[in-house]
Amino acid sequence: MLEFKKNTPLCIWWFVFKARESMTEQEQKLLRQIQELKEKQKSQESAGARGEIEKLECELSALQGKDITALEAENITLRKKATSLEKELQELRKRYSELRKIFGSLEPGVEKKPAAEKESTLARIIIKKYASVINEKETKTVGEIKALVNKDDLTVQAIVNDLKPEGYSFEKQYLETAEKTLQYITEEIEYVRADFGINFWLEPKEILEAGVSDDEDLAVLLCACLYALGDEKAQVVITELDNLTTHALVIAEIKGKFYILDPSQKTAFSKYSGEQAKCLEEFEFKSAKIKRFLYKFNASNYEQFV
Fold first, then answer.
1. Which of 1, 95, 103, 109 lies most in the core, judged by the most C-beta atoms within 10 Å?
2. CB 247 within 8 Å of CB 263
């Protein structure tokens, strides 16, 4: 007779049930009685008990068409198989536990945050904790801000040298090359809004390696590239939009036309070009319009408006 503890896995109960489902209720009852009497016989040798066992065994053999030895052998086999199944189940539980540690919960309806999102949350906590230290370190003088537009930076030089045609002439080929430069930056570097509550400036090399940047560093990179192409008048402008956010862009004058160039969004090079007032009125970033300039700068000039 197979006996299981209360916490025996359901799959083992199912196996035993399927293995014995061909036995009738009467046969199962006889088998249970035989097992109980054998246990009783072990604790107290009784001729009466032995006789009763033999009688029941004969009845069971008659019903099954097998002798009691064969039935007991089948019972032993079932026990071994059940033990084996229980060991396999334990191994599966162990493996499941290992996989859960790697991939997270597999339970339906339970969503786990991606690792990248968890890292981002942790980074924000650390940045917030040390914001005052970072802001103090990143505070720059007017001279240091102007120096950000560095045409001699090796990364800036590598970009413009790849884009300039052979025998480049500023007078003849600047407009075309400037357009290629803006296109390169918008395609190779993804704009992200960095709401970390800190001031920071990335170097061109760091921007290209990361493949992402905020609007200010993108504008500085574009302005530095235009400066390397020979445009000494292009400027980075930090604006206040009518939704009360700030946004950085580049302004330039090419062949008598005013241009607003925004490397944070993929717009045509000449979309905002022509008369200055008209360009400033029409420009928008995420449906927000320019309210006013806060400050502007390049390698040789810095002007603050508020």
1. 1
2. no
Whether residue 237 sits in one domain with residue 262: yes
Q: Indicate whether 75 belongs to any domain.
A: yes
User: For residue 76, with 0-12 CB atoms within 10 Å meaning exposed, 13-18 middle and 19 or more buried, which class applies?
Assistant: exposed
Whole-Å CA distances, 15 to 3, 23, 30, 80, 85: 13, 14, 21, 12, 9
pLDDT tens for each residue of 181-228: 999 999 999 998 877 666 778 999 999 999 999 999 999 999 999 999
Q: What is the dihedral of CA 218, 219, 221, 227, to 10 degrees?
A: 160
pLDDT, tens digit, for every residue of 70-95? 767 777 887 788 888 888 888 888 87
Number of domains forming the structure of the chain: 2
174 and 86 housed in the same domain: no
Residues 170 and 50 in one domain: no
Same domain, 86 and 192: no
Token duo for residue 14: 């199912």
The backbone torsions φ and ψ at residue 34, rounded to the nearest 5 degrees and listed phi first, read: -60, -45
Cβ–Cβ under 8 Å, residues 291 and 239: yes
